[in-house]
Design brief:
345 residues, alpha/beta, 434 Repressor (Amino-terminal Domain), Rossmann fold, 3 domains, 6-stranded parallel sheet, 4-stranded parallel sheet
Length: 345
Amino acid sequence: MVAKRLTQKDIARLAGVSQATVSLVLNGSADDTRRIPEQTRSRIQEVIARTGYVADPVARRMVKGRNDILGVFTYEPAFPSAQADFFAPFLFGIEEAAHQRGYDLLLMTAAARGADGRKKIFDETNRLRLADGCLVLGRNFDREELAQLVGGDFPFVAVGRRDDAGGPVPYVGADYAAATGELVALAQGHGHRAFAYVGPAEGAESTVDRWSGFSSALPPEELAIHWPDVGSDPEALLKAVRASGATVTFFTELADAIPFRRLAIAKGLSVPGDMSVVVLGSHLRPGETGTAFTTYAIPREEMGRRATLALVDRLEGRAGLEQTLLSCERVEGETLGPQRPMSEL
């Protein structure tokens, strides 16, 4: 037999007070609660503790206008085996901040899918409205859906910088442009004046920011080769880089840098020495790649935490639209060294 669920009316009867008084203690503002005598508040709290009463979230939402639940939507799977280490820190930061502010999390896993198989926010309904507001993650956002969110009244914050979509987008992102420019300056400080860049110049905002930081910090004559295709044959790439005369190669993808370096060493080249390698943001630890690449650390956990706090502040009326870029910490690594004189190459 299922036990009858306790209601506020039951708590009021057991505490010898009105149901309105119980509601004020549970849902009222701090000023409302202070108007109730301490003895009465204590008696109500004692009954709640003794009976194990839990407020009905639907009723609570009707009173407060929210139920203290934050949604988390990812365009890519949140826990794929191949990328779990990339997404997990975002979720760690989100969980920490939500717990700090007294909010639960709702991971949106039953989203609709478009013709291309990608997850979608909007179908017949906006499932995000199951929560009070939502954190949206993904390397590539659906621009039409982003514009629909911006034009609507549902609170959200993007994790990662996003261009305007019919209006400014609230976000907390990483300052890839500045971090990339600092690595260019570091390589120049080592004497490098012939650079290779492996990765596209267009695409998602994070891709554009990396290229912007690279190209704005580098005089045009120092770009020896731009190889826009990721996932290319390492043999062809190494041959092209060597033919260009580049002494340092910047990679947007760690997955391209690893086989490139491995092949170079297999052919008797030293890294650094004969050539240097720089990765524009890595999420793997040195032990997982076999080496410590010169790169910068993306502050993923802090991005998730700050985005969550920004969303809660919006929900609770303490702040408006936020657009924040966090600094990336440089990782010196062991793959960038001084340029050798051409006579030694």
